[in-house]
Amino acid sequence: MINFTLNGRSVEVDNPEDELLLLVIRDELGLKGTKYGCGAAMCGACTVHVDGEPEFSCQLSVGDVAGYEVTTIEGLSEDASHPLQKAWIDQQVPQCGYCQSGQIMRAAALLSENPDPSRAEIAEYMAPNLCRCGTYNRIFKAVEQAAQEV
Predict the structure, then answer these.
(1) What is the value of pTM for the model shown?
(2) Backbone phi, then psi, for 117, in 5-degree steps?
(3) Cα 102 from chain centroid?
(4) Ranges for the 2Fe-2S ferredoxin-type domain (predicted)?
(5) Partner of 81 at 20 to 30 A CA spacing, among 10, 87, 91, 107?
(6) CATH number at residue 138
(7) CATH number of the structural domain spanning residue 67
(8) Is there a single domain that holds both residue 13 and residue 69?
């Protein structure tokens, strides 16, 4: 059995230690907000926080997070009241929306480290997460808006 904290709650799973964290989160624990994008740490759609740090869940095994705290998009806010979630709506960021949970999770990590980032700092920090629709300017504006509220 593997124990870790997920979105503030202790969980115990009986999966092989080398099973991908992404699959355990989605298939075993039923949280579908974290997306499977590329499976190769090249897009960021699967971004979660592990002890507050953004990580690609497609590259971690569930054994890697034993004893750690994992936060998914569902754990950011139960009612979409997080400043980033509100800013995403205000700035009309999503087009297809597939990358957005990963984008928001990376942005949340940025704002926890740097509550007043410059546009250049936002662009650099957000670079590992890709948006195929190219809504980067709206993403940057949403992060800037949320920074004013955090």
Answers:
(1) 0.96
(2) -75, 150
(3) 4
(4) 1-76
(5) 10
(6) 1.10.150.120
(7) 3.10.20.30
(8) yes
Q: What is the pLDDT of residues 8-30, one digit of tens each?
A: 999 999 999 999 999 999 999 99
Name residues whose C-beta falls within 8 Å of residue 56's C-beta, 6 or more positions apart in sequence. Answer: 41, 44, 46, 47
Say how far apart CA 4 and CA 63 lie, in whole Å.
Answer: 9
Residue 72 sits in the same domain as residue 6: yes
**Rounded CA gap, 53 and 108, in Å?**
10
Domain containing 92 equals: 83-149
Q: What pLDDT digit, counting tens, does each position of 99-127 carry?
A: 999 999 999 999 999 999 999 999 999 99
Report the amino acid identity of residue 123.
A
Start-to-end Cα distance in the chain = 37
